[in-house]
Amino acid sequence: MARWCYRHRLVVLLLWVGALFGLGFSASTAGTNYANVFSLPDTDSKSAYDLMEKAFPNTSGDTDTVVWKVDDGSVRDQAVRDRIRPVLDDIAKMPGVGAVTGPYDARGAAQVSRDGTIAYAEVTFVKRANEVPKELVQDVVDTAQKAERAGLQVELGGQAIQRVQEPPQGLSEGVGIVAAAIVLFLAFGSFFAMTLPIAIAVFGVGTGLFATQLLSHTTDVPDIAPLLASLIGLGVGIDYALFIVTRHRRGIQRGLDPEEAAVTALNTSGRAVLFAGGTVCIALAGMLVTQLRFLDGVVIGTSLTVVLSVLAATTLLPALLGLLGPRVLSRRQRRRLAAQGPEPEGASGLAARWSTAVEKRPRRTVALALVLMAVLAVPVLSLRLGATDQGNDDASTTTRKAYDLLAEGFGPGFNGPLQVVTEGGETSALVKGLQDTPGVARVAALPPAHGVTVIQVVPTTSPQSVETDRLIDRLRDDVIPSAGAQAHVGGVTAVSKDFSTVTGDRLPLFIATIIGLGFLLLLVAFRSLVVPLTAALMNLIAAAASFGVLVAIFQWGWGLELLGLGKEGPINAFLPVIMLSLLFGLSMDYQVFLVSRMHEEWVHTRDNARAVRVGLAETSRVINSAALIMVCVFMAFVLSGDSGAAMAGVGLAAAVALDAFILRTALVPAAMHLLGDSNWWLPKGLEKRLPHLAVEPKEEAAPSPAARGAGGPASAVHGFVRTADGEPVAGAAVTLMSAGGRQLDRVESLADGSYIVSVPAPGTYLLATTAPTYGSRARHVDVGQGPLVYDVELVEGEVDAVN
């Protein structure tokens, strides 16, 4: 497929351009129909919601507030009335506004604070917050704030108001792409090579978002789904293309023509991309086991974007590589290739030195990495799930100011009142019991409607307070049963508490599901029990440390002001499920790219130390570059204006940084050095039963007996293994392999450094040499009809790779 896409590059490019613009035109014509559906069956708040819907079926429009405060006098003063009344009347006349209920109406006395300095009016739109045109909301904001003067402060709060405060759509994505482009240019040193991963990400995310927008008309997709889809799509799209382009450039630098380099890159790194994309989708699908309908649309949007990003990386990318040809290298690299010829196969520089250092000190590396991750994970012990509200907005926003004014004038609990809903029966005893309950500031029973009575209960504490959670439990467990009533506690605060409880109860099953699925995938791919067990353990360590960072920032408030992320509060209840899905998927990506290279070397040489050393040396630089790109993309979502996306962005940025820079490049290889050959252990009985799913290309078959001839080996390779100073190296392992990596002969050099290996037939073979105190070297050798003399020079710290 890679060769076909390379040779028919214009056709492939036109198909992708047509798909992007076609989906974009269809999506813009159809519009959006995102819906935040919180379905919590068998919960008390859901029962309360059902009764309220029965009593008040026509209250679907969003209700926002206009709040004002005077420095001197009272809001009832005539001068204040004369400024506020005309503004409220103008807002009420706007098309799309259903009603405005103010404190100067007949029933508005309760909308003035006790000291008379703060009042509010309720603005009810005819549509839900996400359906109200931003132009209308902005007109409401501008009109209300015209009433401001010295000594009179006017602020607005509510879901619709919050939407117009968000930064321009696409700002976070744009900043993330620019940051990724800078990292890519520094990594590649080539403008054309830099544009390839960006182009793949744009096509993958673009088609994914347009397709998700169209699907929102057929199923419930929450409005946060496209934001999370673009977050994960940009990250994986750029990273997947980066892995393939890096392998392609390496192939050209080692003498392959551009077409063969592209085919080889797709046949190696491309396979790993397919496998990694599958693991991400499986991790995302793990959210379905929570049975939270709100997350179903998130799974659809993010998985679809990942699938299209993988498709773009494996079809569009080889076409673009064909268009660029050798220009995928920088001018300096092309000049060096023309002047000096192909580069030798091997890894050198910082990556090789780090790989050697990890091999020499595995115990110290494991200990330091574990201590660091444990320290970062400590805050997770105080994790508290809940829901953010406008009290967590930045202090400069009008929604935060309105929230604080309402809390100041009417009490902290005013921003999150509870609704005690009962159907039929006498409610006086229940009202009296609620009024006598500690932690309740005010109780107001609304007139019955359709046999349903709603009693509004205002707590003395804020919606995010632990005391408010305890009050809800007290009402449900003691107060309502004591009054002999059949009632349910609802409202936004109660829904948030129930959602947190349900999520926390189902989290262990969710974690077990995605870890189990990941274990099975790695088991089949790498034919090992230890590798997937190590990966599962590392994923749990990464999750604990990243959530520790999240708690320290968003719950404890460390660095919130520096990041401009408002006020501390509980962690969004839905975030652990979403973040763990993305984290486990991305962690599996890095595990696959790292271990697949190690497994490739292990299959070729059966030398665990060499396999781990070469795998780390060859992949650590690209994994770190990929992680740095993801960190930039995720951190850019702090600018999204959405607190949930900002939390996810910071949490995932921390998780990816810890996973790539500490776990995959230090802890995992160090642990694999300590485990030795047991890394690749698999019981024979299990080996026979497992299906074959190869991440690496299929090996070549061994030479047939006929090819070997009746007289034994056709020839031999012999020579000496020496150091750069000419000193003999005794005990060096010399392995002869077929071009496909099958081991044909293996010997150890003698005291004088001499060796001899048998060759079955004339042809091209791979000769790999390694010694414990020295480096390693692997070279292709061409053997004719007679013996070949080949001396090997080992250099300390050098890591050669088998390719």
From TrEMBL:
Keywords: Cell membrane, Membrane, Transmembrane, Transmembrane helix. The keyword Metal-binding does not apply. Residues 206-323 form the SSD domain. PROSITE patterns: SSD. It comes from the Bacteria. Its main location: membrane. Gene3D superfamilies: Carboxypeptidase-like, regulatory domain (2.60.40.1120), Multidrug efflux transporter AcrB transmembrane domain (1.20.1640.10). The chain crosses the membrane at residues 174-193, 224-245, 272-292, 298-325, 366-387, 507-526, 533-558, 570-588, 622-639, 645-663. It is a multi-pass membrane protein. InterPro entries: CarboxyPept-like_regulatory (IPR008969), MMPL_dom (IPR004869), Mycobact_MmpL (IPR050545), SSD (IPR000731). It is found in: Cell membrane. Belongs to the resistance-nodulation-cell division (RND) (TC 2.A.6) family. MmpL subfamily. This is MMPL family transporter. It comes from Streptomyces pseudovenezuelae.
